[in-house]
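Quick entry, no commentary yet.
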Amino acid sequence: MDMQKILVVDDEEDLCEILKFNLEIEGYEVDTAFSAEEALKMDIPSYQLLLLDVMMGEISGFKMASILQKNEKTAGIPIIFLTAKDTENDMLTGFNLGADDYISKPFSIRQVVARVKAVLRRTTDKEKPQENERLEYETLSLDIKRIKATVDGQEVSLTKKEFEILRLLLENKGNVFSREEILSRIWKDEVYVLDRTIDVNITRLRKKIGPYGKNIVTRLGFGYCFEG
């Protein structure tokens, strides 16, 4: 997996280098900028997390975050504010600007590393594609969670293998699967399963899904696919 990239923006150069050193030990790729002006010239969308000091030059960390929030390419990048300003109003300002965490100075490096890991874990989990709960083609529908197939709103009784074959074909419309591929994906380690078993299940499946049976197409010498 590619290393996650972090940008540290703080006008304390020594602190930037300390954070960079320790975060790189943890396996992150880290860049630094000593002002918001410098940071805004960088490729911000390439980073998975920003550590922003609040009190910096003409453009504060809060102002930089506000600028990033107005750009759809950078609005979703997680931000942790690092600051000596720890009043309730300051913290609320940070969170209202979309901050994912707020760490008051002075802090321990271990604390920062732990909070960075927590934020990246949360945001990475959000980015993971969710499994489709329902597959549909016109009025043919597969409810993955409830293991239920319907045609024109009427439930169709499918065996476990028939359901899994239909799911495989619907999830990969237009892709041709050989008998061997279907066997390896659906029957996996089960023994004594013949190629003929696939043909029998496909034949039954076509009959059960009525008008959509014709969408399960045989490619002679290659296998089966679901065509729209």
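second:
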Amino acid sequence: MTVPEHVAIIMDGNGRWAKQRGLPRTMGHRKGVEAVRETVRAAGAAGIKYLTLFAFSSENWRRPEAEVSDLLGLLKAFIRRDLAELHRQNVRIKVIGDRHSLRSDILGLLLEAEETTKDNTSLTLVIAFNYGSRDEIARAVVSLARDVEAGRLRAQDITPALINARLDTAGIPDPDLIIRTSGEERLSNFLLWQAAYSEFIFLPEYWPDFSPEIFRSALETFASRDRRFGGLSSQAAAVGT
């Protein structure tokens, strides 16, 4: 089976999972953290090299203050509880998103996770936190504009590769597969540049119900796809059509 090098997941549906069960939204988020742990283990076992999880978008700050506080608390608890285990599993952690406006306690934990695991060589777990793709692209463009303004770069020399190198994901291959749970079928400002040739799988299950079995089924679906990258399919090329 063809295994994707990079899988990205929009973890959606925690609140609706809780509502269906008459539970507070916070319980859905807590159950979602358990699904994260299982998914990281399953990705490593499958031989996936990069797993990107959309943990907290730049738009999530608009949610009720109590829910934001709980989400931040869960992130801190996850790093404090799981960092040592991830390190033992040779997992490297990379954080993408705007760091400039983050609280010092959150930023410190994220930097600690990156520093502790920077030399690990197994799965790279990319955590998209305070992340929005349009913001990411805008920051990359500003960086290039400053170089043009300073005379370090000519505008006509700007290429897609140069833009790619200024994104938060520089050095990380584009996702082969993007999965979204909860039945929604949109990217929601996630990896817009990087998703140019990604395969998409939209699942009806809410994120807390995402299991290793569901993950394996999604990987099997991916393996059955004929990826053309703008060219002919492998079958068409073989017969010269």
